[in-house]
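Case study: Inner dynein arm I1 intermediate chain IC140.
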Amino acid sequence: MRAASNRQDMGEGGDDASIAVVKAKYFSTIEFSHHHVVMDLQWLPGVDITSRGRVSRSPEGGRECNFVATTAGDGKVNIWDIRVDRLLKKGRKAEDLLDLVWKPLHSAL
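Here is what the predicted structure looks like once written out:
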């Protein structure tokens, strides 16, 4: 992340504000994601979640964070496995990451 050099006049005080620019690195498709604006994102450190929904303590310890939960105005709660290496198939290179399809591990309405 980098702060942009754009400046905006804030009015009365004449203060300048920097606008942080965050570029997206990976995207999910709307077919598998939320259909409304994401309202909250919660990191889930120290847990491991299987594709069957079993939750256990992560063998890596409490600081490792491999999952996030998101909720949106569509009422869905999605659990995402954010480990990129799980999405890579044999023979794929890191440059191909933009071609990956990101889907939630679990979704509840």
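For the exam, be able to explain this: Confidence is low (pLDDT under 50) at residues 1-11.
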